[in-house]
């Protein structure tokens, strides 16, 4: 069995590769790490040092993807980081899903049997603009699965523990943020999930019998009891509140970050809808899959409190 990971030097892809190796779930020689880095670069050499096959591929070059996926049985498709493709209400086929579809079509053409797609742990339907490309990609995968062209598993990855500064007013500076008050469009509980835990869960799914996961969409996120909203996150560092959260609504949120803080309007408008989703409770997930998978290797999910403390004091 051969497993390919796109974005193998990124956060989620890297964590999944690391878990495959550290948990001894797959032989290094059976893993194909796809990277946009050039042969001989530091990232390329770091992958080679782990004993895996390293192949060059980019979302912009479908031919490179098809070539890199030759001989692969299972393909872990980590979503493209090119969020700007989604701006300005990108129509179907023009957003980030254009990259995903290129990779999926390449996988089918190369004879890949099973595609595992890393989606995001929001609701469906969702008010969050960040989910639009994911939902479109999920729909495309379902159409191929219904046509018996490939087996599909959708993994809706929990919002990263490590990403809390992004949700706290666009990359809150954990060391020296000048704001005493952070204005947000909304708030709601989030089942925060550590990247390393997601890597382990992904690796286990990738190496378990495919029949157990084919045709499924599951959430990989911590239990609702550990969910925290942004007000609670803001009060965590050192046990005392260093910043206050003010909920101003979406329109005022967009005006503040564009007019007062000088951010680009398309990016702000795309991201602001995230707070509408939080207000609706889209990220309060009740799915035991992550806990069950981590139990298989004797791990417990890393609580958000632990991550916040480490990031603030580190």
| CATH architecture assignment name of the domain at 3-158 and 194-220 and 287-301 | 3-Layer(aba) Sandwich
In whole angstroms, how far apart are the ends?
A: 40 Å
CATH class of the domain at 3-158 and 194-220 and 287-301: Alpha Beta
Predict the CATH topology of the domain at 3-158 and 194-220 and 287-301: Rossmann fold
Number of strands: 9
Q: How large is the count of helical segments? A: 12
Keywords:
314 residues, alpha/beta, Rossmann fold, seven-stranded parallel sheet, two-stranded parallel sheet, 12 helices
Please sum up the structure shown.
39% of the residues lie in helices and 14% in strands. By secondary structure, the protein is an alpha/beta fold.
């Amino acid at each position: 069995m051969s497993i390919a990971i796109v974005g193998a030097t990124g956060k989620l892809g890297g964590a999944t590769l690391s878990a495959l190796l550290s948990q001894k779930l797959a032989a290094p020689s059976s893993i194909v790490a796809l990277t946009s880095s050039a042969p001989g670069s530091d990232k390329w050499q770091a992958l080679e040092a782990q004993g895996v096959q390293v192949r060059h591929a980019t979302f912009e070059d479908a031919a490179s993807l098809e070539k890199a996926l030759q001989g692969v049985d299972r393909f872990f498709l980590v979503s493209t980081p090119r969020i700007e493709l989604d701006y300005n209400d990108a129509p179907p086929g023009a957003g980030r899903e254009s990259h995903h579809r290129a990779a999926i079509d390449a996988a089918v053409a190369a004879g890949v049997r099973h595609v595992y797609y890393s989606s995001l742990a929001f609701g469906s339907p969702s008010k969050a603009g960040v989910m639009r490309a994911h939902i479109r990609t999920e729909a495309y995968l379902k159409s191929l699965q219904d046509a018996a062209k490939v087996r599909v598993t959708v993994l809706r990855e929990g919002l990263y523990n490590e990403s809390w500064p992004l949700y706290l007013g666009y990359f809150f500076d954990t060391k020296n943020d000048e704001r005493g008050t952070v204005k947000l469009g909304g708030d709601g509980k989030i089942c925060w999930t550590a990247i390393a835990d997601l890597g382990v869960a992904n690796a286990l799914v990738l190496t378990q019998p495919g029949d157990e996961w084919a045709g499924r969409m599951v959430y990989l996120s911590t239990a609702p009891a550990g969910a925290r909203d942004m007000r609670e996150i803001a009060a965590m560092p050192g046990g005392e509140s260093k910043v206050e959260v003010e909920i101003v609504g979406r329109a005022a949120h967009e005006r503040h970050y564009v007019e007062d803080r000088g951010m680009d309007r398309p990016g702000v408008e795309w991201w602001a809808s995230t707070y509408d989703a939080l207000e609706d409770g889209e990220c309060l997930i009740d799915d035991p899959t992550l806990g069950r998978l981590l139990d298989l290797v004797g791990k417990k999910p890393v609580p958000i409190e632990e991550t916040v403390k480490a990031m603030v004091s580190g």
